[in-house]
Amino acid sequence: MKIIVATHNAHKLSEMAAILPRGIELVADDPGAEETSDTFEGNALIKARAAAALHPGEWVMADDSGLEVDALGGAPGVRSARYAGEPVSTARNNAKLLSALEGVKNRTARFRCCIAIVSPDGMEHIAEGRCEGSIAAEPSGAEGFGYDPLFVPDGCDKTFAELGPEEKNAISHRGRALAEARRFFE
Ligand code: IMP
Q: How many helices (H) and strands (E) does the chain have?
């Protein structure tokens, strides 16, 4: 079975490949659709529908994810990738987040991931996962991507960037959304 995945993010693709059932071939094709929704679910559907239009009769999957920080009213949220503006820069995003939280005691946050699946006959399904945690005072670790060096999942004393991919996948928002997607495909 083949699934077209509407992403250009190699980290996301390898996290998906590690969790979905063996025998599923993931083919990346990002149609570059503009993410105009203010919800993760809406943006995942925009991307999945755009890829489905290019690949009629195929299974298509797209995810939208991001970080919600409670003290910032849920920001960066759907703007996580471009929090510090264009061109997209992980270093500037993380620096902006740390400065927005300077002196702030409540550092609770969560990663959220919505996966939209479009079946060959056009049926749509959404899988969602969350991971609760908090924002560290300074970055640690070199694994993963994005805000990983700043995010400490609840019940853990390391950031996502200090965990190996298996440890991260077991508890991450994307791991949980993919586990739900896996149950859907099975
Ligand atoms: P998306 O590609 O539109 O889903 O943008 C998601 C953005 O949220 C990414 O560019 C990262 O900044 C952030 N993000 C989502 N998932 C993760 C994760 O697992 N680790 C770190 N950052 C993430």
A: 5, 6
